Amino acid sequence: MHHSALLNVMIGAARKAARTLKRDFGEVENLQVSLKGPANFVTAADRRAEETLRAELAKARPGYGFLGEEGGKHEGTDQTHTWIVDPLDGTTNFLHGIPQFAISIGLERSGTIVAGLVYNPITDELFTGERGKGAFLNDKRMRVAARKSLADAVIACGLPHRGRGDLELGLKELGAVQDKVAGLRRFGAAALDLAYVAAGRLDGYWEQNISPWDIAAGLLLVREAGGFATDIDGGDAMFAKRNIVVGNEAVHRELQRLLKAAGKP
Known about the structure:
Elements: H1 5-31, H2 37-60, E1 64-68, E2 72-74, E3 78-89, H3 91-95, E4 102-109, E5 112-120, E6 125-130, E7 134-137, E8 140-141, E9 154-157, H4 167-178, E10 183-185, H5 190-198, E11 204-208, H6 212-224, E12 228-230, H7 238-241, E13 243-247, H8 249-262
Parallel strand pairs: 1-3, 9-10, 9-11
Antiparallel strand pairs: 1-2, 3-4, 4-5, 5-6, 6-7, 7-8, 11-13, 12-13
Helix pairs in contact: 1-2, 4-8, 5-6
């Protein structure tokens, strides 16, 4: 498949960063016996991957801004474009030797996400999309699942955990959704959850307390695969409100309704 120049830049950067992540992932197993080692090692792996991505993207598009999980925001001379990057989404999975993690690269142009890439180096699954041009998994066109009823749907979510998130709200949301769906999943990598919705593997997904770099690429993939991605109030303020809900039209509508009701005082 012929990729645009923009996607070629993103794919090249992701594959270069993936080489070191794969090597580092292979080392994690050797560190599991240490109490201190793994966490420090993973932090270093995360930073190395972000430095590689930033360098590769800057080489190809030198004026663009950069927002990364590790290094924060860097303004570019081109004020209209910003890369939004998570070099290692699913850090806890990586730390425990679970191969469910990804590199996520989104490109924002004048406030709109126009391109997205999510890449799992272990499975070699590459999810890509550009605004108005569709979404693809290893060059095969993706479409969201067609299930209309929550009773038939498998939904992924994020869950609050120690030191992060609103446990009370999380339990209310789980209570609102759990007995309405065929299954709930918590995979631990938001970018891949979104990519899986785009690929039709999952019917929907929601999460609170989420960061732009976790969802920038994935929300573009969902929309380009024919799905809906909004904040829980139904608007487009996912980055500001730090929450997201996605699915096909019917699943998104029902999921959003349940979550909104669960969040009311």
